[in-house]
Write a structure and sequence with these properties.
Length: about 500
C-alpha cells in the first residue's frame, strides 16, 4: 500500500505554544504572564528545560488518549485475542472493524503520536547537542520520535515525516506521506543514534522511575523494527540477522534478568522490576489498567469497568501446567463471599462468556478500593522476555531450527514450568509456528498481537476467521484510516488510506 502524491495543504499541527501547555499541564501559564513565553530560540536550553519536556511527554503517554486507554483498543482489542463487552459505540466498532475515521480512539492515538513527535523534535533541534550534558536528552528525543513513528507506521501505514518542531501552520506546506520502508528507515536511523548516547539507567531522585528511555529500550525497539522490516509489508529478509544481533546485545548487557515467578511481574510492588525495559508510568490516582481490565458482574464486590477482556480460545490454547495461564487470565474470582467463575462476569450479551485479563490485577493489594481501584501500575512496553522471543524467531529464520533458537524459547518455558520444546525433530516451519504461539503465551495483552499478525502477513487469515472482527474486516483495514479531523483542517482527501 503506497501513498506518495505531493499536495500543498494546510495541516493541523501542534504549535510550539501548545507544546508549552502540554509541558506545564495548564493553560494558566499562557494566560497569566504571556510576555514570559519562551521562544524556540531559548527553549529548551538547559537540563531543567529538557526535563520539563520529558515530563510533558510522560504525561501524554499516560493519558487516556494513549497509554491509559486508546492504544489498548487499537493494538489489542482489535486483535483476535482481545475483546470488549460493548454492543455499540466506538469501542464496539474497533472490536468488530465497523469503525469510521472519526472514531475517538483512532483519532486519539494518531494525534498523541504527532504531539509527542513535536515535543521530541524540540529536544533534538534546540538543545546544544555538542555538549555532553545535552546528549542523553537529544537521544531521548530521538527515541521518542522513533517510538511514536513505530506506532504510526504499523497502525496507519505510510506516514508524514516531521523532523523539526512545527511552530506555525504553513498553508503552502508540501505534505507527503512516505512509504512504510522509508518510515522504518527513518525510525532505525534515530534509534541507531539514540542507543549510543542514552544511559543504561537515568539517575536522579526526581526521575529514577519515570519511564525514561535507556540504551536497552533503544536496542530492543531497534531489534523489533528490524524484524518488522523483515516481514510484511517491507519483506526485507536481510533485517533478520540485524534483529538477531541487536536482541543478543540486550541479552548480553547484564542489565536485565527474568523474574523467577511470572505472576509476580504485574504486582504493584514489583513495577519497574528487573525484567522491565520500558513501560508507560502511571500516577497512583490516574492509572486505569487495573480497573479497566477488572471484571464486573456475578456479584463481584469492588468490580471494575471490564472495558478489556480476553479470548476464551486463547485461554484454552495454554497448557494447564503453564504458569502463564493463571498469570494471564482471571478464571475464578475469589472473594469473601465465595468464588465467581468467569462465566458469570458481565459480558457482551451477543456472545458467550469470556475470561478477564489477570495481568494488571493485584488482588492481594489491601487498598485496592482506594482511588476507585486505580493504581500506579504502568503499561509494559518491553520486557526482557521479548529479547528471547526476538532471538528465537530471528535465529530460526536465519539459520533454521537451531539449538540456540529452541533454547531461547525454553528459557521462558522453564520459568513458567511449562514443558520444554524438544531439541531435535522440528522443521523450520514447525518451529516458526511454535515461536509465533509463544509470543501470545508470554506477552498476551502487552500490545504485541496486532503488530505481529501484520508483520507475519496473516492478518487477513486471522481476523477473517475471528468471530467478532470478521463482521467488518476487509483487507484494506490492516491499517486504520487517517482521522477525519485532519481533512477537516485542510489535509487533501487523496492522502487518505485506500478503501476509506
Amino acid at each position: 500500500m503506497k501513498i506518495f502524491n505531493q499536495h500543498k495543504n494546510k495541516l493541523r499541527v501542534l504549535s510550539i505554544y501548545t507544546l508549552f501547555i502540554s509541558v506545564f499541564g495548564c493553560q494558566d501559564f499562557l494566560e497569566e504572564n504571556p510576555e514570559s513565553l519562551l521562544s524556540p530560540s531559548n527553549f529548551p536550553q538547559s537540563a531543567e528545560d529538557a526535563n520539563l519536556i520529558l515530563g510533558g511527554i510522560s504525561n501524554n503517554l499516560a493519558s487516556s488518549d494513549f497509554g491509559n486507554r486508546s492504544i489498548i483498543f487499537l493494538a489489542e482489542t482489535s486483535s483476535d485475542e482481545g475483546t470488549t463487552r460493548y454492543t455499540s459505540g466506538d469501542r464496539y466498532s474497533i472490536d468488530h472493524y465497523e469503525y469510521v475515521n472519526s472514531n475517538q480512539y483512532i483519532t486519539n492515538v494518531y494525534n498523541t503520536c504527532y504531539k509527542i513527535i513535536n515535543q521530541a523534535n524540540a529536544l533534538i533541534t534546540y538543545l546544544p547537542n555538542d555538549e555532553d550534558w545535552a546528549k542523553p536528552y537529544v537521544a531521548a528525543g530521538k527515541f521518542y520520535r522513533a517510538w511514536m513513528y513505530s506506532y504510526l507506521v504499523r497502525l496507519y501505514g505510510p506516514a508524514i515525516i516531521r523532523d523539526t518542531p512545527t511552530e506555525v501552520v504553513n498553508p503552502d506546506e508540501v505534505v507527503v506521506r512516505v512509504s512504510e520502508e522509508e518510515v522504518y528507515n527513518f525510525i532505525i536511523s534515530d534509534l541507531e543514534e539514540a542507543q549510543n548516547d542514552l544511559p543504561l539507567n537515568w539517575t536522579g531522585d526526581d526521575y529514577n522511575d519515570d519511564g525514561r528511555p535507556t540504551q536497552g529500550a533503544a536496542k530492543i525497539l531497534l531489534a523489533k523494527m528490524y524484524i518488522s522490516m523483515a516481514g510484511y509489508p517491507v519483506n526485507d529478509t536481510s533485517k533478520w540477522e540485524l534483529g538477531l544481533n541487536k536482541a543478543q546485545e540486550v541479552i548480553d548487557s547484564g542489565v536485565y534478568q527474568l523474574k523467577s515467578n511470572f505472576s509476580d511481574l504485574f504486582l504493584i510492588a514489583n513495577k519497574n522490576q528487573e525484567e522491565s525495559i520500558l513501560s508507560i508510568q502511571m500516577a497512583e490516582v490516574d492509572g486505569q489498567l487495573s480497573i479497566q481490565h477488572r471484571p464486573t458482574g456475578g456479584g463481584i464486590s469492588n468490580g471494575g469497568w471490564y472495558l478489556f477482556s480476553a479470548s476464551e480460545k486463547l485461554m484454552n490454547s495454554f497448557d494447564d501446567n503453564d504458569d502463564r495461564k493463571e498469570g494471564t487470565f482471571v478464571i475464578n474470582f475469589v472473594q469473601e463471599t465465595g468464588t465467581t467463575n468467569y462465566t458469570s462476569f458481565s459480558r457482551n450479551r451477543n456472545y458467550g462468556p469470556v475470561p478477564a485479563v489477570q495481568k494488571f490485577q493485584d488482588f492481594n493489594r489491601e487498598d485496592i478500593t482506594e482511588n476507585a481501584r486505580r493504581t500506579s501500575l504502568g503499561l509494559p512496553i518491553f520486557r526482557f522476555a521479548e529479547a528471547y522471543l526476538i532471538k528465537a524467531e530471528a535465529e530460526n529464520e536465519v539459520n533454521g531450527p537451531t539449538e540456540e533458537a529452541i533454547e531461547a524459547i525454553n528459557i521462558l518455558r522453564r520459568r513458567a514450568h511449562a514443558d520444554e520444546i524438544p531439541e531435535e525433530g522440528l522443521t523450520k516451519d514447525e518451529l516458526r509456528d511454535i515461536i509465533q504461539q509463544e509470543w501470545s503465551f508470554e506477552l498476551a495483552f502487552e500490545l504485541k498481537r496486532r503488530f505481529n499478525i501484520l508483520r507475519w502477513g496473516i492478518m487477513d487469515e486471522v481476523l477473517g476467521n475471528d468471530e467478532r472482527a470478521s463482521l467488518g474486516y476487509q483487507s484494506y483495514k490492516q491499517y486504520y484510516p487517517i482521522p477525519q479531523a485532519e481533512f477537516d483542517s485542510g489535509l487533501d482527501p487523496s492522502l487518505q488510506n485506500p478503501g476509506y
